[in-house]
Amino acid sequence: MDKEFKSGFVTLIGRTNVGKSTLLNLLVGEKVAAIANKVQTTRTAIKGIVNRENSQIIFIDTPGIHKPKTKLNETMVETSFSSIQDADVVLFLIEATSEDIGKGDSIILEKIKEANRKTILIINKIDLVKREKLLNLIDIYSKQYNFEAVIPISATNAKYKETILDEIEKNLNLGPAYYDIEEYTDQTLRQLAEETIREKALKLLQDEVPHGIFVEVEKMKLRKNKQKQEIYDVEATIYCLRESHKGIIIGKNGEMLKRIGRSARIDMEQNFNVKINLKTWVKVKEDWQSNDKIVERFKLK
User: What is the DSSP string of 123-178?
Assistant: First the structure.
């Protein structure tokens, strides 16, 4: 291995719905995080791995910073802030549409200052603002912290990918590859399946339902069918908070649950490169957001 090889952990942090998961998937080049046009899509710290010629970058996508109302929410915010302490580099994402440093961004900035970590400011959604407004925002933030770099981007545009990766690599220390160079995430296939099903539910369900659900894959077994093709049998349960939510998730004649399952199966087959036989059920678990055993799953490991 090259003696100048670098490695390190990079935390992505920002308010809810700022585009962290979209950026993570862009940088990794694989789908490792759920994306939906809803707040609090990411619940746990998800690792994505980028292997370059002279570096290995391990990204940690954290839950969006928000005002916690349940034990689950408290755990999510705690996970985000604790990840700053352990990061070699922090990617702080803000929206270009911001007029000033809002309350949520101000809290994040204070945590970065406390940790005194190398931080790159990423200004997302620049396609929504004029150049003058962008320059003003850069000036406001630059006066608050000595950022290693400020990079204005649109997280859906691949042309910014190498610029960000180059800047991160520049700020990493010499070190070994922590993961096999063929890996792009530390999540298991089971976890990826759970995230995929939850993402489809987030996209397809009404606003009041999605964030009251969690998905648990109870069976994931590889077998060969009659044509000798490999196929995964996946059985998953979607847990929700109320009986009324259960009816919405299932839908009339089971149509909504079928749509969620079909969409998730297509995604999993593309990502896992294997046939999927997916079966889903819906159950009510009213107190799960305050259940210590369940909430423990969302803590930073």
Answer: EE-GGGS-HHHHHHHHHHHHTT---SEEEE--TT-GGGHHHHHHHHHHTPEE---S
pLDDT in tens, 172-186: 999 988 887 777 776
Q: Which phi and psi (to 5°) does residue 278 adopt?
A: -105, 130
Q: Is the pLDDT of residue 301 over 50?
A: no
pTM of the model: 0.62
Q: Which CATH superfamily is domain 189-298 in?
A: K homology (KH) domain (3.30.300.20)
Pairing of strands 173-174, 6-14: antiparallel
Q: Are 110 and 145 in contact (CB under 8 A)?
A: no
Reported as a single tens digit per residue, the pLDDT across 45-97 is 557 889 999 999 988 877 644 444 455 455 454 555 566 877 899 999 999 99
Output the CA torsion 188→193→195→198 (10° steps): -160
Q: What is the mean pLDDT of residues 34-50?
A: 53
Question: Which pLDDT does position 35 carry in this prediction?
Answer: 43
Among positive and negative, which fits the CA dihedral 160, 161, 164, 170?
A: negative
Using CA atoms of 100, 101, 105, 111 in order, give the dihedral in degrees to the nearest 10: 160
* Phi, psi values for residue 102, rounded to 5°: -75, 175
Does an H or E element contain 111, and which?
Answer: helix 103-115
The whole-number pLDDT of residue 84 equals 80
Domain spans, the chain: 6-174, 189-298
Topology agreement, domain 6-174 and domain 189-298: no
The CATH number of 6-174, from 1.10.340.30, 3.40.50.300, 3.40.50.1110, 3.40.1190.20, is 3.40.50.300
CA-closest candidate to residue 211, choices 220, 201, 221, 219 = 201
- Parallel, antiparallel, or unpaired: how do β-strands 149-152 and 89-95 relate? unpaired
Tokens of 242: 């109320």
